[in-house]
Write a structure and sequence with these properties.
By secondary structure, the protein is α/β, with parallel strands linked by helices. Helix content is 28%, strand content 20%. The chain has a 7-stranded mixed sheet. It has a 3-stranded antiparallel sheet with strand order 5-10-9. A two-stranded antiparallel sheet has the order 6-7.
C-alpha cells in the first residue's frame, strides 16, 4: 500500500512499501505523461539520469507498457553523463541502452546521446547545441518564463549526499545560470569528468520526478524534503524546484524512514 501526499513546498510524495510497488507506480506515471504529451504535442521529450533509476523503470519494458506506450514518439535525452566511452561500465548511456533502449521499439534517431569522443567541455557545448536545434523544431518545448528548454519529463535519482544529475553539494556548478548543459572535471565521486543539465533546465521541465530507494538515502531525503532550517547550504535535491512544472518524489519505505511523520502521510 502506497502513502501519497503533497508537501506544501516540496511537491508530491509517493511512498511505497517495496520496490516492486514503486516500479509499477513509476511505470504508470511515465506512461500517463507519455500519452498526455503525445496527444498534446506529438512528442514526448524525456531526460534520464543513471544510478538505480533505470532498474526501477524496468516495468516499462514489460506488458502492458511495451505494447501500449507510443515508443515511436519518444525522444530520449540524458540529464547527465560520465566522461567515459559509451561501452564503459560507468556510462549512463550504456545503463539506459542495456536496461531500456534494447528492450522497447524506440526510433534510433530519437535517442540523443552525448558525444563520447569529445572533451567534457566540448561535449557539453555540443549537447546544448543539439538541444537548441530540437527546441527550434519544437521536438522539445520551450519555457514561457525563461529561454530554457521545457522537457516533458526529467527523471532523476539522488545520491546519499543529496546530489542529483551531476550536481553535487557545495559545487560551483550549482550556480550556473547561463548554460543549459555544463561540465565538471572534479566530481567528488568517480569518474571525475561529468556532463550535466543545469538547475535552470531541470526547473523548467513540465514534470520532474526524483526516484529514491534505500535506507542509505534516508537522511538526504529528510534534508531534501522536510523543513530543516537555514543553517546549512541546501542539498542539490532540495534545489530542484520546478518553476511552473510538477515535482513528484517516488520513495520506498526505507528512503522515507526519516521524513517527519506528519508530512510523509498527509
Amino acid at each position: 500500500m502506497a502513502l501519497s501526499g503533497v508537501h506544501k513546498d516540496r511537491g508530491e510524495l509517493r511512498i511505497h512499501e517495496c520496490l516492486e510497488e514503486l516500479g509499477t507506480d513509476l511505470a504508470d506515471y511515465i506512461a500517463e505523461l507519455s500519452e498526455a504529451s503525445v496527444k498534446e504535442r506529438g512528442a514526448f521529450a524525456v531526460a534520464l539520469s543513471g544510478g538505480s533509476l533505470i532498474g526501477l523503470m524496468g516495468k516499462l519494458c514489460e506488458a502492458p507498457y511495451n505494447k501500449t506506450v507510443d515508443w515511436a514518439k519518444w525522444h530520449i535525452f540524458w540529464a547527465d553523463e560520465r566522461g567515459v566511452a559509451k561501452n564503459h561500465a560507468d556510462s549512463n548511456y550504456k545503463l539506459v541502452k542495456d536496461g531500456l533502449l534494447s528492450k522497447v521499439p524506440l526510433v534510433p534517431s530519437h535517442v540523443h546521446s552525448i558525444n563520447d569522443s569529445l572533451s567534457a567541455e566540448e561535449a557539453a557545448n555540443d549537447y546544448e547545441f543539439v538541444i537548441r536545434q530540437l527546441v527550434r523544431t519544437r521536438t522539445i518545448g520551450v519555457s514561457d518564463v525563461s529561454d530554457c528548454p521545457k522537457f516533458d519529463l526529467i527523471l532523476l535519482c539522488m545520491g546519499p549526499d543529496g546530489h542529483v544529475a551531476s550536481l553535487f553539494p557545495n559545487h560551483p556548478v550549482l550556480d550556473a545560470k547561463d548554460e543549459w548543459v555544463t561540465f565538471i572535471t572534479d566530481s567528488p565521486k568517480p569518474p571525475p569528468e561529468r556532463i550535466t543539465f543545469t538547475l535552470p533546465v531541470i526547473n523548467s521541465a513540465s514534470n520532474v520526478a526524483v526516484v529514491v530507494a534505500g535506507e542509505d538515502k534516508a537522511e538526504a531525503v529528510h534534508l531534501a524534503i522536510d523543513d530543516v532550517g537555514p543553517d546549512s547550504a541546501p542539498l542539490p535535491a532540495r534545489m530542484v524546484q520546478p518553476t511552473k512544472g510538477k515535482l513528484v518524489w517516488f520513495l520506498d519505505k526505507l528512503a522515507a524512514s526519516k521524513l517527519d511523520g506528519s508530512q510523509s502521510s498527509e
